[in-house]
Amino acid sequence: MKIIIAGAGDVGFHLAKLLSYESQDTYIIDFDGAKLNYINNHLDVITKKGDATSIKLLKEIGISSADLLLAVTESQNTNFTISVIGKALGVKKTIARINNPEFLNNDVINFKEYGVDFMISPEELAAKEIKLLLNQSSFNDTVAFENGVFNIMGTTLGYKSPILNLTVKEVKEKYCLVDFITIAIKREGIAQTIIPRGDTVYKINDQVYFSVPSYSIKKLHPIIGKEHVDINNVMILGGSSIGEKTARNLCIDNFKVKLIERKKGKALQLAENLRNTLVINGDGRNLELLEEENIREMDAFVAVTGDSETNIMSCLVAKSKGVKKTVALVENMDYINISQTIGIDTLINKKLIAASNIFRHIRKGEILALANLHNIDAEVFEFEVQPNARVTQKVVKELRFPREAIIGGVIREGKALMSFGDFQLQSGDKAIVFCLPEAISIVEDLFN
Question: How far apart are CA 166 and CA 161, in angstroms?
Fold first, then answer.
């Protein structure tokens, strides 16, 4: 597959990084020579300095033979322009990163007629993820498949967890009546993500990811040593598009929401748009203001200002005041892996979320969904099993599945099934697969 990426920012770089693990013919275009030099030194892709809206440049790199054009610059208008030109020059599919979520849900304009096949809004995706995180208060990472039939739940093991110092096999025997599969462990001091086997031991401060059917989520709480806490009162810091969308989403589900916005004009506009949200004009970094607005009575604190450090520090203040759940938006990718070590429940990066969402259009095979876990450089796939696929020919334990991947469960005719060793996949099944980058191509071949 020949893929052209316009924009070498965080979204473009992460996409290029994912593609560099495979034999994709990947080009990345940007004006910024420093960014391109960094990519050249770290990734196996072809870089081109210049303007991605240039017809001459696009022709030079063979746009007419390209399978996919990803327009992911910081400018929505530029991304639209690139997509329209690329489509006119013969690229098979275009995806544009946008800022205006209105474009996603409109029945007036068919953007495909103009050359934009798909659109991705990082802000919209981030707002949806925040709501999902607040609905599962005991976990700091969560991904739902098939409307929650199967779920990936991530949490950090504290000293109260009864599974500490036990092996995966021992825990499975002890809690044999609870359906779950441990798919990954991120351990302090170890760069490589652990794909657990029977003799893997759970340790204090491990970030553990479980694959669990919806009916077993509540049963998982005593295993991780945490109680489920209902989130009702939420304080949002920052009236950005993510803050506004999050407030609107939460109010639909009857959350009680307070939103703090520093700019007076913006606060007035938000108050007009968000009828069911209490909008406060003030500086959320002011501890006295937070106390006046009863931060100690909040169940969750979500910081989504444009400044990563402000978001992190305000979440730490909220934690010190007894707030149970904190979520901070960060721009710097390097921050993503430090949430547990500094005491914040979840750090999210809208560009990383967007890149993972785009990436599913690149994958081979019948991939229904794809997600990225916050603390792990890996992917969770939902594959639709094809007739005569290699995974249908033997039971799971005989498939010679790569050690860098694990099947976390199967959805068959709308029902969740556990994919232990003697389980055999069938055509039409939807399999949840956790996979490190180096094993992605092998896993795809098994499902083809």
Answer: 11
Does the domain spanning 378-447 belong to CATH 3.30.70.1450?
yes
CATH architecture of 150-224: 2-Layer Sandwich (3.30)
- Under DSSP, the state recorded for 194 is B
Q: Which residues pair with 258 in a beta bridge?
A: 235, 278
The pTM score is 0.76
Residue 314 Rama label (left phi>0; alpha psi -120 to 50; beta):
alpha
Tell me if the domain spanning 126-131+230-351 has CATH number 3.40.50.10770. Answer: no
Which tokens is 279 given?
């909008």
What is the rounded CA–CA span in Å between residue 143 and residue 156?
16
Q: What is the pLDDT of residues 289-301, one digit of tens each?
A: 999 999 999 999 9
Q: Mean of the pLDDT values across residues 200-228?
A: 92
Residues 6+ apart with CB under 8 A from 396: 407, 419, 420, 421, 422, 423, 424, 425
| Residue 322, token pair as written in the block | 């007894």
Domain 2-120 homologous superfamily, CATH: NAD(P)-binding Rossmann-like Domain (3.40.50.720)
